[in-house]
Amino acid sequence: MSPPTTTSGPAVELRELRHRYGEDEVLRGIDLVIERGEVFGFLGHNGAGKTTAINILTTLIAPTSGSALVCGHDVVTDRDAVTRQIGYLPSEVRLYGHLTATENLVFFARLSGVADPEGAAARALEFLGCPELADRRVGTFSTGMRQRIGIAQAVLHEPTVLFLDEPTAGLDPDGVRQLRETIARLNTELGMTVFMNTHLLSEVARVCTTIGVLNQGELIYRDSMAETVRRFPDEASLEDIYVRVGQETA
Ligand SMILES: Nc1ncnc2c1ncn2[C@@H]1O[C@H](COP(=O)(O)OP(=O)(O)OP(=O)(O)O)[C@@H](O)[C@H]1O
């Protein structure tokens, strides 16, 4: 796989982003800029609004108001340009169990118009370190194996920005370690910006360059990982950082 074409400008820009489900406002005016090349960890409790934000950024739903840009393209008015630039691993990987890994990847590569779908599938499996899974049916895979194929699918077209929704869910410690390594390689070797939702920051903290904390639809913290570690040096686990940040900003 070769690095994606890079141009200037932030990878993600949210301005006064709001979203309502009926009367319930779940994103309450988010302003956030993520530069290209960052690995951004988006932390928050269950129900904080993280998936809603990713669904907006991946063009699955339109925001109620405000704007969201990916690589300078508006997710509502320039949807096709956004989808060309992004890869997405949802919290539940959707693959066809009766097809092999390669058949799944070739299918999705054709859907997204990738040139040489077979070659792209083979390169993605190689990059993910699992070429031996190529001809095995996905229905027989463990959670960790399915997730690798899910990531392979998300990066087949070599996106500029990769969105991951709770990627550590269901993984054992070895799977979490492999995931961290994969994210680091996608970032350093292919230059991908990564935007990752998580409520277990400690599992991914080492790979994040920046974090943001969402609390009841409001962004209450955003800083580099280095500054975060400096500010919270005694934190044995970063998992409850949003509680402390929430208390400080209350
Ligand atoms: N389609 C929907 N219709 C109505 N309410 C929704 C819908 N999707 C999410 N919500 C509500 O919006 C709020 C934010 O949900 P969201 O899934 O964005 O949060 P999250 O931070 O990703 O949490 P989780 O980790 O539990 O998925 C929650 O109260 C949720 O119940």
UniProtKB/TrEMBL annotation:
Q: Which organism is it from?
A: Rhodococcus antarcticus
Q: State whether keyword Nucleotide-binding applies.
A: yes
Q: Name one GO molecular function term.
A: ATP binding
Pfam families according to UniProt:
ABC_tran
UniProt keyword Transport, yes or no: yes
Source domain of life is Bacteria
Keyword vocabulary terms for this entry:
ATP-binding, Nucleotide-binding, Transport
Q: Report TM segments.
A: none
Q: What is this protein called?
A: ABC transporter ATP-binding protein
Family to which this protein belongs = Belongs to the ABC transporter superfamily.
**Which PANTHER family does the record associate with it?**
ABC TRANSPORTER, ATP-BINDING PROTEIN (PTHR43335:SF4)
Q: Where is the ABC transporter domain?
A: 12-241
